[in-house]
Amino acid sequence: MMDQLHKLDGRCHCGNIRYRYYSPVTTEDLTIRACRCSYCTKIGGRYTSDPQGILVAEVFDCEAIHLYRFATGTANFYVCGRCGMAPFVTCLLDDIMYALVNVNTLNDFCPIRAQIAYADFSHEDRETRLSRRRTKWIGNVTLTLPHGETMLGEEPVYSHETCHSLE
């Protein structure tokens, strides 16, 4: 299956958060959404995901990571405290980590020329929102933390002293 996917690399500006997104479509054919919520509007986030895609992400310094949640509190925006970028968003549902990536953080990609669909999810209740994520977001996510810890289907919790997973 991997040979049928297109490899797209991305990272925060300083490189503390890096990822590789294996997409079933080329960068020219990505479906890009701009959420109209206040947070996404302010940061200029443009997102893509595909349930057939694969996300492999790595965090190098957990102390520099801020997980930002708002509204329903069901999604984690991985914000680098060094450069302020949020390369991807995760949501844990039924022990499966789902994600989408911010195309503004893809290497060698110019979202200015891309077709962008504006989305307003404010009408969704919590269950509708989570159901949409199960069917539209990337469902194959691996997140590697410093010291070789790997997160599969778990949301990490960061303290100021260490990175560790929820138990």
Descriptive report:
By secondary structure, the chain is mainly beta. It has one domain (2-155): Metal Binding Protein, Guanine Nucleotide Exchange Factor, Chain A (Beta Complex). Helix content is 10%, strand content 38%. It starts with 5 loop residues before the first strand and ends with a strand. 31% of the residues are buried. Keywords: Metal-binding, Zinc.
Proportion in β-strands: 35-45%
Record field, number of beta strands: 14
CATH topology: Metal Binding Protein, Guanine Nucleotide Exchange Factor, Chain A
| Radius of gyration based on Cα positions | 15 Å
CATH C-level class: Mainly Beta
> Quick one: biggest sheet?
5 strands, mixed
In the predicted model, the low-confidence regions spanning at least 5 consecutive residues are 156-167
Form type: globular
Query: Strand order, biggest sheet?
Result: 1-2-5-11-12
Question: Helical proportion?
Answer: 10-25%
Domain count: the total is 1
Proper CATH architecture: Beta Complex
InterPro entries: CENP-V-like (IPR052355), CENP-V/GFA (IPR006913), Mss4-like_sf (IPR011057)
Organism: Sulfidibacter corallicola
GO molecular function, one term: carbon-sulfur lyase activity
Keywords: Metal-binding, Zinc
Descriptive labels:
167 residues; mainly beta; 5-stranded mixed β-sheet; 2 helices; disordered C terminus; CENP-V-like; Mss4-like_sf; carbon-sulfur lyase activity; zinc; CENP-V/GFA
